[in-house]
Amino acid sequence: MSTGLRRFRDPAPEVGKPRERCCELCAEPVGERHAHVVDVGSRALMCACRGCHLLFTTEGAAMGRFLAVPGRHLYAPRLVLSEDDWEELQIPVRMAFLFHNSALGRTVALYPSPGGATESELPMETWERVLAANPALADVRPDVEALLVDRGPDGFVCHLVPIDACYELVGLVRTLWKGFDGGREAWEAIDSFFTDLRGRGRVVGVPAGGGNRD
């Protein structure tokens, strides 16, 4: 049962007392830090207890409807991506995440915005060229992992992350962004988020002679 429906079933929490987080598959309490499962058809990201999460790590469980979000983090500090490629990808902001959406049968690109996750049209020929130039990142798992690209002053970097990390970033931007440029609080939170990802990620290389292409 979804969180939206459960609020009508469960008793209202006491005034001033936060509602306990529960697994959206079996209703067991999960705590603040917990795993997630993706509903492939609806694209819903569901809170999961350890047992339910482990259940959906098995290939073919629930006929593939639910997939456990893994915990893999990779960090490519020198993504092979040119400015022309970035323009062709039609991403108008500094950062975006890309993942294969099985329900649509294609890779999609989204970027955080004050209104939530905004989809950008993705020219597949350009994206396939970028993946071919960065083979260490090419095995990103459909639906549950994403490539989070950040365009910094020294070029492009990329994090292969669980899909829930991308929506954590979306939440930061949506909650903290103020005015046209976002404001100091938002950018401090974004920088802290990427610092944390760098600390978690196993560094992966690029082809010999690689780097950001001019």
Descriptive notes:
- The protein starts with a helix and ends in an 11-residue tail after the last strand.
- The protein has helices at residues 3-9, 50-55, 83-88, 124-133, 163-176, 184-200; strands at residues 35-39, 44-48, 66-68, 74-76, 95-101, 106-113, 116-120, 145-152, 155-162, 202-203.
- Helix 5 (163-176) packs antiparallel against helix 6 (184-200).
- The chain is built from 6 helices and 10 strands, in the order αββαββαβββαββααβ.
- A hairpin with a 4-residue loop joins strand 1 and strand 2.
- It is an alpha+beta fold.
Based on secondary structure, the structural category is alpha+beta
Low confidence ranges:
1-15, 206-214
- Most strands sheet: 7 strands, mixed
Task: Give the helices and strands as they follow along the chain.
Answer: HEEHEEHEEEHEEHHE
- Major sheet: order of its strands? 7-6-5-8-9-4-10
Broad shape = globular
**Count of helical stretches:** 6
Helical amount among residues, as a percent range?
Answer: 25-40%
Secondary structure topology:
Elements (H helix, E strand, L loop, with lengths): L2 H7 L25 E5 L4 E5 L1 H6 L10 E3 L5 E3 L6 H6 L6 E7 L4 E8 L2 E5 L3 H10 L11 E8 L2 E8 H14 L7 H17 L1 E2 L11
Parallel strand pairs: 4-10
Antiparallel strand pairs: 1-2, 1-3, 4-9, 5-6, 5-8, 6-7, 8-9
Keywords:
single chain, 214 residues, alpha+beta, 10 strands, 25% strand, globular, disordered N terminus
